[in-house]
Amino acid sequence: MDGVSLGVYVLWFVDLVFSFGACWAIVKKGYLPHWKAFGYYLFFMAAQNLVLLPVSLLGSDRVYAYTYYAADFLEALLLSLVVLEILVKVLDAFEALPGRAVARFCFFTVLGVSTAVALSALIPTHRTETMVNILTTVERTVFLAGAAILWVLLFQTKALGISWKSSVAEITVAFVLYLTVESTRGFVMVAYKSNSVQDIATGVGQFAYLVAMASWIWTMTHRDPVSKPSGEAVARIRELARGDEIVPKERILAAVGIKIHLSETEAEEHAAEEPTDSQKRGRSYLVH
Fold first, then answer.
1. pLDDT of 203 strictly over 70
2. CA distance to 4, 12, 129, 176, 240, per residue, from 7 (Å)
3. What's the half-sphere exposure (Cβ side, CA atoms, 13 Å) at 193?
4. Cβ neighbours, 10 Å, residue 44
5. Domain ranges of the chain
6. How far apart are CA 59 and CA 57, in angstroms?
7. Which of 40, 82, 99, 160 gives a 20 to 30 Å CA spacing to 217?
């Protein structure tokens, strides 16, 4: 592929090595049963790098471009599932949250997503292929929206009692870094047609993903895959909920297309005034 420096190819090869390292870690360290969407994302990214690298070296620019945009579109779809999975992990310890906390989170999330959509739609494009324009716009929008949601979530970690030294927090931080840099790279690639600028932007994006993968590998080898807030944090949330209108977890997740199916025993327990830990058994999460 023309206009790509040797440094970009070196980073690309290192990314490929780290991708397989991340795939090994998520299987070997027992993360896959708990982080399915995240695991599928890592497998897909490893396969994407494995395919795109030889296509870039041996194929034409046109073939590479269409392969790249199709792969990026699929990556954006998987990222949406990963963001939903992170939300489930954060909310899983709580039966309900105070209405004010939910409203605040929803307000900033809607604000961030709306801003992401507006910015993505306003970016001019110089390409004539309609399908390519659609794929790149969807990818850019999903990356920006995902970054906005995760940024809001990170600002809520203290209120939810999530430790920064936990798998869910560290995985989220790495995704925020990667998505923020990658979103910025997308704007640069559209705004500047200089080969040198695009080459630098590509290298920065690859380096950001390399840092994210290194962080994920470290997390998977040092942290438990299941992250739970402290008992004090859960008690504090329940105490706040008593003085405010509570929003059950099921309603929060249903708002983003995730339904939690409860057994009959759980449904009876869930109707009780004080939630118990037994309500957490027998649930399955379905994304619609």
1. yes
2. 8, 8, 29, 25, 53
3. 4
4. 16
5. 6-222, 257-287
6. 6
7. 160
Copy the structure tokens of residue 249: 């977890």
Burial of 89 (C-beta count, 10 Å sphere; 0-12/13-18/19+): buried
Question: What three-state secondary structure class fits 175?
Answer: helix
Question: What residues contact residue 58 under an 8 Å CB cut-off, 6+ apart?
Answer: none
Which residue is associated with the tokens 């850019």? 140
C-alpha 115: how far from its chain's center? Answer: 18
Q: Class of the 6-222 domain?
A: mainly alpha
pLDDT digits (tens, 9 = 90+) for 261-288: 544 444 444 444 444 443 334 443 333 3
Alpha helices in the chain (DSSP H): 6-28, 36-58, 61-91, 99-122, 130-155, 167-191, 195-222, 231-242, 249-254, 264-270
pLDDT in tens, 236-270: 666 655 655 665 656 655 555 556 554 444 444 44
DSSP 81-121: HHHHHHHHHHHTT-SEEEHHHHHHHHHHHHHHHHHHHHHHH
pTM of the model: 0.76
Q: Tokens 């939300």, residue?
A: 87
Tokens of 198: 């695009």
Q: Give the closest residue to 225 by CA, choosing from 6, 18, 32, 78.
A: 32
Q: DSSP state, 44?
A: H
